[in-house]
Design a protein that fits this description.
The complex is a heterodimer. The two termini of chain A are 17 Å apart. Chain A has a 7-stranded mixed sheet, sandwiched between helices. Chain A has a 3-stranded antiparallel sheet with strand order 10-12-11, with helices on one face. Chain A has a two-stranded antiparallel ribbon with strand order 8-9. Chain A is globular and about 75 Å long. Chain A is an alpha/beta fold. Chain A contains 15 helices and 12 strands. In chain A, β2 (159-163), α5 (169-176) and β3 form a beta-alpha-beta unit. Chain A folds into 2 domains: 81-338, Aspartate Aminotransferase, domain 2 (3-Layer(aba) Sandwich); 345-455, Aspartate Aminotransferase, domain 1 (Alpha-Beta Complex), CATH 3.90.1150. In chain B, α6 runs parallel beside α12. By secondary structure, chain B is α/β, with parallel strands linked by helices. In chain B, the strands form 4 sheets. Chain B has a 7-stranded mixed sheet with strand order 2-8-7-6-5-3-4, with helices on both faces. Chain B contains 14 helices and 15 strands. Chain B folds into 3 domains: 8-54, no CATH class; 66-76 and 352-442, Aspartate Aminotransferase, domain 1 (Alpha-Beta Complex); 80-336, 3-Layer(aba) Sandwich (Aspartate Aminotransferase, domain 2), CATH 3.40.640. The interface between A and B is large, with 205 and 208 residues.
C-alpha cells in the first residue's frame, strides 16, 4: 500500500480554514521563518479518509478478532465509555489553575477525585494520584516516591529487588531513579525463590517490586511473608497492577501489605489500548507515602467542593503536564460505576474461569511448565513442538491466518518458547472453543506438516518481515 | 451492566471441563488470610444511567468559556474526519503492533507519523511518540546525559514551568546539576545563558515560542552549545512550525514538543502526545518505540517495530528508558490532522494564529496602563503587563466567561502584574474585541 506521501498532489487541499477576520500581521523576520516547505501531504478529504480507512483494515483489533494477548488484558471496550469521555473532552486544564477557576471545573476535579477514591477502595490503598500517564510511568512515579520516603527518613538505600519473571518495565523504572537491580530467580513452584530472596534482602534494599498474580498467571502464596520481610529492613513493597484483573474483590494489595501500587486503566478498567496508547497508570499509596505524592493534588474541602493543592513541599514534584490522561480516566470512571461492586467481582471471576478453561483444554497438547490452577492467564511452552523445529512464533503466525491475534510469545523470559494466553472475561465459551480447536490443530500440524506453520501467515497483505534489515538500515522516515 | 457473556449453564460446562465444582475453587490458591477486608463500592448501573451521571458531571463545569489561555494546552480547530478515522475500532481497540503481519495499519500510520515529525522539525529520525511535551523534554535531557557522559544541564527559564518541574522530578534522584537561566523581558537572557554553557554541560534546553510566546532564534545558542561539546534541545509548538524555522535548521540536536495542538482535544490536559526527533547518529539513544521500513519474504514493503534492543522488554534495567507504550492513537490523530491540513493548510493555520494574536496585541496595548513585556517577536501568545496585579483581573473576567490569560506571578515571582494571552485561530474578532472591552472595564 502506498504511503500517504506517495499520494500527495501539489496544490490539493483537504481542509478549508475559516476566513481571516483581522488584518494581516506584519511579516516576521526571514531568519525566524521556515525557508523550506514542511512537505506535508497534499490530499483531498476523501483521499485522507480512504487512506486511513484502508490502513485500519490492515489491523487486527478486539472488535474484529479474538486477541488473547497475555499480560495485556485485551477485553472488550464498551462503546458507552467513548461517549462518556466525549462528554468530558471540551474542558481546558488551565481553567482550575486560574484565580477563581476551581469553581468552574468542579465536574472534572470531582471526577478525578472520585476515581481516586474508587481505586483506593478497590486496591486497599489510602490515596491515589491520577497523574501517571501509563503503567511504566506509574512505576517510575512509585519509585520516585520510594526514593523520597527513604531520603526523608535518612535511609541509605541502594537496591531494588525484582523477580526474574517481572515485566521489563520494573527494573527499568527502578533504574531511572538510580537504583541498582537485584534479580531473584523463580523457584520450581512458579514464584520468587524465597531462599534467594532472603539472602538478597538487606538494610540497603529500598524496595521489592512484585506482580501478583505474576506473569506466569500464578498467585504467590508467600506474598505477605515477602511484604513482612521487606518491612523488617524498612524496604517498601511495590505492586505492579498489570494483573489486577484477576483479583478484584478477592484480594486488595493494600490489605496484604503493599505500600505503593500502580493500576493500568487500559487493562483492568476497560479503556481501549489505542494501538499502543494512550494508557493511564494511577498510583496508590499507603499513608506513609501520601506526603510525597506528585503535585498538583486534587483534594475535597470541608464544604464538599474540590480544590487543587499545589503547595505540598515534600512532594516529588510533577510527573505530567497537567492531571494525567484525563480522557482515559473518564472512561475508567464510567467503567467502574457501570460495573459496580458485583460487576467488578464478576469480571475477575469470569476472567479466571476463562483462563483455566483454556489451560485445561490445551495442556494435553502443549507443555505447561507450571501446572497448577492459574489466575487470569496461563503460560504454555512450545518446547514439545520445538522437537519438530516449530517455534512459538510459528504457532503465533499460524493463528493469524486463522483469524486470531496471537497470544504473547517469548514472555515471560523464564519460560522457553513461551505462549502466554489471557482470554479476559468478555469472551464467550464459543469463541474460546474455536480458539482451542485452532491451537490443537496447530499442535497437530507441528508434527504432521510443520511447513504450513513455518510459512504462515499467508492470508495477510504481507508475509513475515525481515527485522534484521529494518534494524540495520534504520529507515524510520520517508525521504523525498 | 456486565460484559461477561457466559451463561450459568456455560459456566457449569466449563467448570466441569476444568474439573472443579465452583468458581471459588479456582481462587483456592489465594490463602484465606489474604482475602480482601473490604470492597465497599456502589452497585452497578446501565449504560444509560452511567451516561446520565457523566452528563451531570460534565454539566457541573463552566460551559462555553472563551479561551485566551494556553500554558501548554491549546484550543485549536479539529476537522471532523480526525474523529471519524481515529475512532475506527481497528485502530482504537488494537494493541501495540508486536505482530507486524496483522498490524500493518498501525505500523504504516506510525511510520507516516514519524515522517511528518521529521518534516516539521527538519530532523532525520523520530520515535513513534512519547507521553506528553513535558516528559518528552525530560527524556531529551536524559538523552543528552547519555550521549555526552556529562551531568550538567542549562535550561532557559522561558521553558514551560510545568515542563521544567517534570524535568526536575525526573532528575531528582540522579546526580545532575540543573542551571536555570532567568528570562529577561519575556525572552532568553542570552548573555547569561551563553555564559552558563561550559565543558561539563550535556544539554542546553530552550523552548520556542517560549512560555511568554516569544520566538527564540537558536542558531547562536546552538553554535555555543556545540563548541562546548553540548547538545541543544529545542521544544517547539508544532502548529507554529507551519511558519517558523524548523529546529534542525537552527542547529538543534533534539526537537521535542507537545502534540496536543495537532488534532487532539483539550480533554482537561490529556491524553495527547509528546514528540521527539533527532539526527540519525543519535537514533540508538532515542527512548520509546521506533517503526522501521523493511521487506517481507516476497520483497514487499512492510513496517516493523525496530531497534527494540534499546527497550525495557529486552534490555530491562539497561534500557534507554522505562517507557513501554507510546501515545499511538493520539499520534495517529496528529498525523490525520496534518494530512487533512497539508503543507499549505498548516502554514495558513499558523498565519491565522499570528494574525489574530497581533490584532489582539494591538488592541490590548491601547488600553491605558497596559504594555507588552519585552519587544521580541511572538507567535500566538504574548505577555502583557497590567497597571495592577493580574490575578484579580483574570478572576473578574473569568466570572464573565472569559479566560483572559494565565497570570505569571505564580510561575515567575516579580511578574505579579503580568499575564500571558493566547489567541488561536478559533478566536473571532468579536471575541478579541470583547476581551479588550472587558479588560479595560476591569482595570
Amino acid at each position: 500500500m502506498k504511503l500517504i506521501y506517495e499520494q500527495s498532489v501539489a496544490g490539493r487541499r483537504g481542509t478549508q480554514l475559516p476566513a481571516c477576520d483581522v488584518p494581516n500581521a506584519a511579516p516576521l523576520a526571514a531568519a525566524l521563518c521556515r525557508s523550506e516547505s514542511s512537505a506535508l501531504p497534499e490530499m483531498s478529504e476523501l483521499d485522507v479518509v480512504r487512506h486511513f480507512t484502508r490502513l485500519s483494515r490492515r489491523n487486527y483489533s478486539v472488535d474484529t478478532n479474538f486477541y488473547p494477548l497475555g499480560s495485556c488484558t485485551m477485553k472488550y471496550n464498551s462503546k458507552g465509555l467513548e461517549a462518556a469521555a466525549d462528554l468530558m473532552a471540551p474542558y481546558h486544564p488551565m481553567t482550575p489553575l486560574l484565580p477563581g477557576g476551581e469553581a468552574l471545573a468542579q465536574g472534572c476535579l470531582g471526577m478525578l477525585h472520585g476515581l481516586g477514591s474508587l481505586l483506593s477502595e478497590i486496591t486497599g490503598m489510602d490515596e491515589v494520584t491520577t497523574q501517571p500517564l501509563a503503567g511504566a510511568h506509574g512505576e517510575m512515579t512509585g519509585m520516585l516516591l520510594v526514593a523520597a520516603y527513604h531520603r526523608a527518613k535518612g535511609n541509605r538505600k541502594k537496591y531494588v529487588i525484582v523477580p526474574d519473571s517481572s515485566h521489563g518495565t520494573n527494573p527499568a523504572s527502578a533504574a531511572m531513579v538510580g537504583y541498582e537491580i537485584i534479580t531473584i530467580p523463580t523457584a520450581p513452584y512458579g514464584d520468587m525463590d524465597m531462599e534467594a530472596f532472603r539472602a538478597a534482602l538487606n538494610d540497603e534494599t529500598a524496595a521489592v517490586m512484585m506482580t501478583c498474580p505474576n506473569t506466569l498467571g500464578l498467585f504467590n502464596p508467600h506474598v505477605k511473608e515477602i511484604c513482612d520481610l521487606a518491612h523488617g529492613v524498612d524496604a517498601l513493597v511495590y505492586y505492579d497492577g498489570a494483573n489486577l484483573n484477576a483479583i478484584m474483590g478477592k484480594v486488595r494489595p493494600g490489605d496484604v501489605g503493599f505500600d505503593v501500587i500502580h493500576v493500568n486503566l487500559h487493562k483492568t478498567f476497560g479503556t481501549p489500548h489505542g494501538s499502543g496508547g494512550p494508557g493511564s497508570g494511577p498510583v496508590g499509596v499507603k499513608s506513609s507515602l501520601v506526603p510525597f505524592l506528585p503535585n498538583p493534588r486534587i483534594v475535597r474541602k470541608g464544604d464538599g467542593s474540590f480544590a487543587i493543592d499545589r503547595d505540598n513541599p515534600r512532594s516529588i514534584g510533577r510527573t505530567a503536564n497537567f492531571f494525567g490522561n484525563f480522557g482515559v480516566m473518564a472512561k475508567a470512571y464510567a467503567y467502574i460505576i457501570q460495573q459496580g461492586k458485583e460487576g467488578l467481582i464478576r469480571v475477575s471471576e469470569q476472567a479466571v474461569l476463562n483462563a483455566n478453561y483454556i489451560m485445561s483444554q490445551l495442556k494435553a497438547y502443549y507443555d505447561l511448565p507450571y501446572d497448577q490452577t492459574c489466575m487470569h492467564e496461563c503460560v504454555f511452552s512450545a518446547s514439545r513442538q520445538l522437537k519438530h523445529d516449530v517455534h512459538a512464533i510459528d504457532i503465533a503466525k499460524y493463528l493469524i491466518d486463522q483469524g486470531y491475534h496471537p497470544p504473547t510469545v517469548y514472555f515471560p523470559l523464564i519460560v522457553k518458547e513461551a505462549i502466554m494466553i489471557e482470554p479476559t472475561e468478555t469472551e464467550s465459551k464459543a469463541t474460546l472453543d474455536a480458539f482451542i480447536e485452532t491451537m490443537i490443530e496447530a499442535a497437530k500440524l507441528a508434527e504432521s506438516n510443520p511447513e504450513i506453520l513455518k510459512a504462515a501467515p499467508v492470508t495477510m497483505p504481507i508475509s513475515r518481515l525481515d527485522e534484521t534489515k529494518a534494524a540495520r538500515e534504520q529507515n524510520v522516515c520517508c525521504i523525498g | 451492566m456486565s460484559y461477561c457473556p457466559n451463561t450459568p449453564a456455560e459456566q457449569q460446562e466449563m467448570l466441569a471441563a476444568i474439573g472443579v465444582k465452583s468458581i471459588d475453587d479456582l481462587f483456592a490458591p489465594i490463602p484465606q488470610q489474604l482475602r480482601a477486608r473490604s470492597f465497599d463500592l456502589p452497585a452497578g448501573m446501565s449504560e444509560f444511567e452511567m451516561l446520565a451521571k457523566m452528563t451531570a458531571l460534565a454539566g457541573s463545569n463552566a460551559q462555553g468559556l472563551v479561551h485566551f489561555i494556553g500554558g501548554g494546552a491549546y484550543d485549536h480547530l479539529i476537522p471532523t474526519a480526525v474523529d471519524h478515522l481515529a475512532n475506527r475500532a481497528e485502530f482504537y481497540t488494537a494493541y501495540t503492533p508486536y505482530q507486524p503481519e496483522c498490524s500493518q495499519g498501525t505500523l504504516q500510520a506510525l511510520f507516516e507519523y514519524q515522517t511528518a515529525i521529521c518534516r516539521l522539525t527538519g530532523m532525520e529520525v523520530s520515535n513513534a511518540s512519547l507521553y506528553d511535551g513535558g516528559t518528552a523534554l525530560a527524556e531529551a535531557a536524559l538523552m543528552t546525559l547519555r550521549i555526552t557522559g556529562r551531568n550538567r544541564l542549562v535550561v532557559d527559564g522561558g521553558v514551560n514551568p510545568f515542563h521544567r518541574q517534570i524535568l526536575e522530578t525526573y532528575l531528582e534522584d540522579i546526580d545532575v546539576e540543573i542551571v536555570t537561566i532567568a528570562p529577561r523581558d519575556a525572552a532568553c537572557d542570552r548573555a547569561a545563558l551563553l555564559g552558563a554553557i561550559n565543558d561539563r554541560t550535556a544539554g542546553v534546553l530552550l523552548q520556542t515560542p517560549n512560555f511568554f510566546g516569544t520566538i527564540e532564534e537558536l542558531t547562536e545558542i546552538a553554535a555555543a552549545a556545540h563548541a562546548a561539546g553540548a547538545l541543544l534541545v529545542a521544544s517547539t509548538y508544532p502548529v507554529a512550525l507551519g511558519m517558523l524555522a524548523a529546529p534542525a535548521t537552527m542547529g538543534a540536536d533534539i526537537a521535542v514538543g507537545d502534540g496536543q495542538s495537532l488534532g487532539n482535544p483539550l480533554s482537561f490536559g490529556g491524553p495527547a502526545f509528546g514528540y521527539i526527533a533527532t539526527t540519525k547518529k543519535y537514533i540508538r539513544n532515542l527512548p520509546g518505540r521506533i517503526i522501521g521500513e523493511t521487506v517481507d519474504r516476497e520483497g514487499r514493503r512492510g513496517f516493523v517495530l525496530t531497534l527494540q534492543a534499546r527497550e525495557q522488554h529486552i534490555k530491562r534495567h539497561k534500557a534507554t528508558s522505562n517507557i513501554c507504550s507510546n501515545q499511538s492513537l493520539c499520534a495517529l490523530r496528529g498525523l490525520i490532522f496534518l494530512s487533512l491540513l497539508g503543507k499549505e493548510g498548516l502554514a495558513e493555520m499558523a498565519r491565522l494564529n499570528r494574525n489574530k494574536a497581533e490584532y489582539a496585541k494591538g488592541l490590548l496595548t491601547k488600553i491605558a496602563g497596559v504594555s507588552l513585556v519585552g519587544s521580541g517577536p511572538t507567535f500566538n501568545e504574548f505577555a502583557l503587563r497590567l497597571p495592577k496585579p493580574a490575578a484579580p483581573i483574570v478572576e473578574t473576567l473569568l466570572q464573565k466567561g472569559i479566560a483572559a490569560g494565565v497570570p505569571l506571578g505564580e510561575y515567575y515571582p516579580g511578574m505579579e502584574n503580568c499575564l500571558v494571552v493566547t489567541v488561536t485561530e478559533k478566536r473571532s474578532r468579536e471575541e478579541i474585541n470583547l476581551l479588550a472591552k472587558e479588560l479595560e472595564v476591569a482595570l
